[in-house]
Automatic annotation (TrEMBL):
Its EC number is 4.2.1.3. Residues 5-216 form the Aconitase/3-isopropylmalate dehydratase large subunit alpha/beta/alpha domain. InterPro entries: Acnase/IPM_dHydase_lsu_aba_1/3 (IPR015931), Acoase/IPM_deHydtase_lsu_aba (IPR001030), Aconitase/IRP2 (IPR006249), Aconitase_4Fe-4S_dom (IPR036008). PANTHER family: ACONITASE/IRON-RESPONSIVE ELEMENT FAMILY MEMBER (PTHR11670). Keywords: Iron, Iron-sulfur, Lyase, Metal-binding. The keyword ATP-binding does not apply. It comes from the Eukaryota. The keyword Iron applies. This is Aconitate hydratase. The gene is aco. It comes from Pinus sylvestris. GO terms for molecular function: aconitate hydratase activity; iron-sulfur cluster binding; metal ion binding.
Length: 234
């Protein structure tokens, strides 16, 4: 509902335009970041204060720039991509930080793909995983019933404030606290587990990884099941 209907991207209050933002008590409020709307989860007290008209305050976070290049191979899904991204970001360490995705590979991702990655922010630990507005975003807004007038207003405002990304134009060099990069063509079909979403396992390694987990000592990647019990049929 937030993506398809409630999200404004740009508010128009009697001729005063300003970017949309949202906070919610659900940690997966971050899904809206796939639409170019800054959003993240907060506690109940913070949410109540916002509902009563009080301003939100926060420490200015570090921003991790995550560059996407290339294209996904046939058969590779958004789930495969998000599990790969989650593993990379967990290894890098992004707790309490914003992650902004950019680069030529962005044009290969649908709004649904972006929303899937943004939705997983709690799993990779970031406050948000943000996707700037581009032509894919505008196409989605039209698809979900926003008027042409509204979409044109959004594009004009964001272009005027250098917040719109047009990959057909030369890109401005971005400055971030730290940088990561992923070639989408390197993403393989995968799953995660057995206990944590960032423990990614490619499908071709799934069988060997599972048998290793049965043998390993009890932990995130182990069950310590004796060999004789592994053969037991229930």
């Amino acid at each position: 509902v937030n993506l398809e209907y409630l999200g404004r991207v740009v508010f128009n209050a009697n001729g005063l335009l300003y970017p949309d933002s949202v906070v919610g008590t659900d940690s997966h409020t971050t899904m809206i970041d796939g639409l170019g709307v800054a959003g993240w989860g907060v506690g109940g007290i913070e949410a109540e204060a916002a509902m009563l008209g009080q301003p939100m305050s926060m420490v200015l976070p570090g921003v991790v720039g995550f560059k996407l290049t290339g294209t996904l191979n046939n058969g590779v899904t958004a789930t495969d991509l998000v599990l790969t991204v989650t593993q990379i970001l967990r290894k890098h360490g992004v707790v309490g930080k914003f992650v902004e995705f950019y680069g030529g590979g962005m044009g290969e991702l649908s709004l649904a793909d972006r929303a899937t990655i943004a939705n997983m922010s709690p799993e990779y630990g970031a406050t948000m995983g943000f996707f700037p507005v581009d032509h894919v975003t505008l196409q989605y807004l039209r698809l979900t019933g926003r008027s042409d007038e509204t979409v044109k207003m959004i594009e004009a405002y964001l272009r005027a404030n250098k917040m719109f990304v047009d990959y057909n134009e030369p890109q401005i060099e971005r400055s971030y606290s730290s940088y990561l990069e992923l070639d989408l063509s390197s993403v393989e079909p995968c799953i995660s587990g057995p206990k944590r979403p960032h423990d990614r396992v490619t499908l071709k390694e799934m069988k060997s990884d599972w048998h290793a987990c049965l043998d390993n000592k009890v932990g995130f990647k182990g069950f310590a099941i004796p060999k004789e019990k592994q053969e037991k049929v229930v």
